[in-house]
User: What shape does this take?
Amino acid sequence: MKYFIRIWQGVEHKVIGTPKDKHTCKECNQTFNQKNFHVASAKIVGKEQLVLKRLKRTCKTCENSKRALRHTLNKDPKTPEKPTVCLHCGREDAQIVLDHDWNTKKFRNWACRNCNAKFRESTFDEYVEAGKKWYHVT
Assistant: This one.
């Protein structure tokens, strides 16, 4: 598998692809060189356990605006304090993240990563209905 080295803050990252690769941002649909995308999660390859990273699917400009929104909402005094359990499923051993509406740019609730990815609705009633569908409850 082809990879190249990208150095960020003094750390070498082995990134899948080549330095000349172009990618299209899933948010703005513009095509950029790989340098315009943040390094994302790792993938372990082969018997030699080579750790390769992929690139995010959103360009740095779009990703940075998302990060700024999350940071702003996290620091907003109206945002409730972060709980130690998921307010949707009750898990205590999961990472709790800020759930917000990308359209209205408003805080919705705190949720574990799994629930935040599963439930995309705006109101609690919509969450309940989505949860019923997810867990096949009628």
